[in-house]
Design brief:
Family: Belongs to the NAD(P)-dependent epimerase/dehydratase family.
Radius of gyration: 22 Å
GO molecular function: UDP-glucose 4-epimerase activity
Number of strands: 16
Distance between the termini: 28 Å
Structural class: alpha/beta
Protein name: NAD(P)-binding domain-containing protein
CATH topology of the largest domain: Rossmann fold
Number of domains: 2
Bound molecules: nicotinamide-adenine-dinucleotide, 2-acetamido-2-deoxy-beta-D-glucopyranose
Strand content: 15-25%
Keywords: Carbohydrate metabolism, Isomerase, Membrane, NAD, Transmembrane, Transmembrane helix
Number of helices: 12
GO biological process, one term: galactose metabolic process
């Protein structure tokens, strides 16, 4: 059974319906008669369900108190691409996980798969809530005993951020503030923050180190930089442990094929290169458009540092393990190697076995020629290095999932393909 809680805040009353801990509270508002009947019926049905499914439905939720030896991690955005992979890894490593996501971009299907893999009590709960809603977030923090927060939830498309900047400042900067305030109010001491190489903008010197000046050139990068600054200022006066991870271009998916990347179809136009590559291989789009062949790079196309999601989530677990009160760690998470778009397209053709049509077009405004990381700091301090550095293999793993999930998480896997 899906452990599904819904938190939403209404003007004068708080409702909480948590199938996991089974509580229903509506203290202030006087319900009408019909409402009471409906409520009683719903509760009876629920009780029967819970009695049938859970032997311990009466005990308090294991998520609501700290347990020695168990680290309870709040994963915001855990229904999304990276967050779901992080939740899978944490669960595998025996962490207790609460996912908060409003499914605006993520997939309930991914959460369901995690629930099926880790059905035990006190392993994983999903709370449907909007991080922009400070009351809802506070309620979640007061009802759950978190030891750490991995804050993935965000909107994350550079192109979209230039068209709709407020959406970015709201859902990145302002929501991070809400999460921080809740952490402060409820004494949660460890934060692992998802940042991005977009905070560096277009530096002149490659590779990018953590000391490279941050001069973001689009609202996405600026919103993330502002969120970083807020975290760093706040951190100065409290004994919080902070890790800021600046990811480069994330690709790949779970090598065991349980999870994948399934963005909303309407976001395709803003999409990333791997998504476009798979869409082209599947024939959903006629081919790949490579924008810009006259950059000052070896083959004229842009150069990026592609980091496999399995490596990326490993860096989060290492960051969590090494996080120390009053300390802040800022790390680039990349392979340290740049690959050109042409190289990527060749790897994609080989990984999918499809001779994808490629169209070469003029440059797209706002793209920078070359971006790749210097990942020595994270190697030296967290003992992390990228393991999945074969582009074609990472794409092959992701393609396997894509091919068997032609409708993302919307349809069950197609057998035998
Ligand atoms: N994918 C990349 O290449 C990349 C690179 C650098 C940084 N990042 C960062 O990694 C994080 C995760 O990115 P992703 O690629 O998994 O994105 P994603 O869109 O797949 O996941 C984001 C999740 O956050 C949820 N969410 C968004 N706003 C919310 C809100 N207000 N309340 C509750 N939930 C909300 C969405 O529903 C979604 O499930 C983001 O912070 C992103 O900026 C991603
Ligand atoms: C998700 O959160 C945003 C605010 O960040 C809100 O505007 C949107 O309606 C929410 N989506 C859903 C499906 O609740
Ligand atoms: C982000 O914030 C805007 C309000 O600025 C809201 O309309 C939108 O739904 C939010 N969420 C997402 C995922 O865009
Ligand atoms: C670093 O990681 C490797 C494996 O990834 C491990 O074998 C080694 O013991 C680690 N070193 C330290 C100092 O923790």
């Amino acid at each position: 059974m899906l452990n599904f809680s819904r938190t939403r805040t209404q003007p004068r009353s708080t409702r909480s319906l948590s199938l996991g801990g089974m509580d229903y509270a509506d203290p202030k508002k006087k319900s009408n008669f019909v409402g009471k009947i409906l409520l009683a019926a719903a509760l009876t049905a629920l009780c029967i369900l819970m009695l049938k499914q859970s032997p311990s439905f009466n005990s308090p939720s294991p998520f609501s108190h700290h347990e020695s030896g168990v680290t309870h991690v709040l994963v915001t955005g855990g229904a999304g691409y990276i967050g779901s992979h992080a939740a899978l890894r944490l669960l595998k490593d025996s962490y207790r996980v609460t996912i908060v996501d409003n499914l605006s971009r993520g997939n309930l299907g991914a959460v369901k798969i995690l629930q099926e893999l880790f059905p035990g009590p006190g392993r994983l709960q999903f709370i449907y809530a909007d991080l922009g809603d400070a009351n809802a977030v506070n309620k979640i923090f007061s009802e759950n005993a978190f030891d750490a927060v991995m804050h993935f939830a965000a909107v994350a498309y550079v192109g979209e951020s230039t068209l709709d900047p407020l959406k970015y400042y709201h859902n990145i900067t302002s929501n991070t503030l809400v999460v921080l305030e809740a952490m402060a109010a409820h004494g949660v001491k460890t934060l692992i923050y998802s940042s991005t190489c977009a905070t560096y903008g277009e530096p002149e010197k490659m590779p990018i180190t953590e000391g490279t000046p941050q001069l973001p050139i689009n609202p996405y990068g600026k919103a993330k930089k502002m969120a970083e600054d807020i975290i760093l200022d706040f951190h100065k006066n409290v004994d919080m442990a902070v890790m800021i991870l600046r990811y480069f271009n994330v690709i790949g998916s779970d090598p065991e094929g349980r999870l994948g990347e399934a963005p909303r179809p309407e976001l395709r136009e803003h999409g990333r290169i791997s998504g476009a590559c798979f869409d082209a291989a599947r024939g959903i789009i006629p081919g790949l458009k490579v924008r810009g062949t006259d950059y000052k790079t070896a083959d004229g196309t842009c150069i990026r540092d592609y980091i496999d999601v399995t490596d990326l989530v490993d860096s989060h677990v290492k960051a969590l393990e090494k996080a120390e009160p009053r300390k802040v760690g800022i790390y680039n998470v990349g392979t340290g190697r740049g690959r050109s778009v042409k190289e990527f397209v060749e790897a994609c053709k080989k990984a999918t076995g499809v001779n994808i049509k490629v169209e070469f077009l003029p440059r797209r405004p706002g793209d920078y020629a070359e971006v790749f990381s210097n990942p020595t700091k994270i190697r030296d301090e967290l003992n992390w290095t990228a393991q999945y550095t074969n582009l074609q293999e990472s794409l092959q793993i992701a393609w396997r999932w894509q091919k068997s999930h032609s409708n993302g998480y919307g349809t069950p896997p197609v057998m035998g393909s």
